[in-house]
Amino acid sequence: MKQGRTGLKSKGQAFPSHEERAKRQKRGPSSFALSPAQDWGNLPHHVVLQIFQHLSLIDRARASSVCWRWNEVFHTPDLWRKFEFELNQPATSYLRSTHPDLIQQIIKKHAQHLQYVSFKVDSCIESAEAACDILSQLVNCTIKTLGLISTARPSFMDVSQAHFVSALTVVFVNSKSLSSIKIDDTPVDDPSLKVLVANNSDTLKLLKMSSCPHVSPAGILCVADQCHGLRELALNYHLLSDELLLSLSSEKHVHLEHLRIDVASENPGQTHFHTIKRSSWEALVRHSPKVNIVMYFFLYEDEFEPFFREETPVTHLYFGRAVSKEMLGRIGLNCPRLVELVVCANGLEPLDEELIRIAERCKSLTAIGLGECEVTCSGFVEFVKMCGGRLTQLSIMEEVLIPDSSYNMEQIHSEVSKHLGRMWFPDMMPTW
């Protein structure tokens, strides 16, 4: 019996007595339990706001249903300055779309709060049309950044041009403070760019509009002539002109930081590429000596003729298709500002001479990548030796390197590592 009583007593100690509870209440905040005045529903507004800022949209919406105070925080303008509309069709995409009810709530309650907005759509025309419908309702917006992103083509290009331009113009007219616009692969046209310029010329700093076939060189020139704060521009080569470069080099214009140019051929042998004067390039570099000029090439071999026959201040070059030895030789001769070079493919002729010439002439080169090419191990070591430790990125497939009398594949990594000043190995094809 004694033993049984002892057991009951020890169990009873797990529950605090009246006196112990009174002592704990006197101790106050040091107790782990939240008092009624400290429950989650009574957390300060700024604390809940900070918590909400770290939640995904779905979790934030769920949390807003906890109580009226959290729902009030859910509609705080600060939480709606940045928003990405995801518009995907269930039949063709595994990604979840922004719920239609939430979209309507945003348009009704938060359109005037939106500042950094993007639309991500899949390849379906229905998704792009839904994006246009939302854009056309943003009449009270003050957007600073707008991005239209297609995860797969054609999307926006399938939409009626009149519908797209009308919707985009709503934002161009009403925002008045657009700073950054990304509208690649869209049917934007010259008249809509004129509307953009008329309402946002003092604020526009970044414009990305590659693959926009309805824009002419005159249309993009209008932007450069009026938007003197433009610091970054991305466009197709057919929009590039001597007049555009000179406009970007005028005294009124700020220093350009990035010029990105896509040089792509849709119809092999049928695309004509014009030549930009050396004097126009030189004017741009004099005005903006630190400008990065990035060119992406997707051409066929016989279409490279107009390029790099004279000195060109390109800094980053990416070749997505095969490029000839002759072309790479021209780069070594005429691209002294080159910082990065990536060659997807070349052929079966070693590129030793071309790489050594690039090392000699391109003193700013810090990154190089070679895909389906060939270089002898001796030629590659000489190239690395000439560039030295300034090569921060060196990506070469093992299949590119050809063993010779001086170096085999076992020796190449230690020799290259010695000249780089760090451990280096060639890239290898995965075996799985």
TrEMBL record:
Entry keyword set: Biological rhythms, Cytoplasm, Leucine-rich repeat, Nucleus, Repeat, Ubl conjugation pathway
UniProt keyword annotation of Transit peptide present: no
Pathway annotation from the record: Protein modification; protein ubiquitination
GO cellular component, one term: mitochondrion
Ranges where the record places region Disordered: 1-33
Domain F-box: from-to ranges: 37-83
Keyword Cytoplasm among UniProt keywords: yes
Pfam families, A to Z: F-box-like (PF12937)
Xref: Gene3D superfamilies: 1.20.1280.50, Ribonuclease Inhibitor (3.80.10.10)
One of the GO BP terms on file: rhythmic process
InterPro entries, alphabetized: F-box-like_dom_sf, F-box_dom, LRR_dom_sf
Localization terms from the record: Cytoplasm; Nucleus
Record-given protein name: F-box and leucine-rich repeat protein 3, like
Species per Swiss-Prot/TrEMBL record: Seriola lalandi dorsalis
Taxon lineage: Eukaryota, Metazoa, Chordata, Craniata, Vertebrata
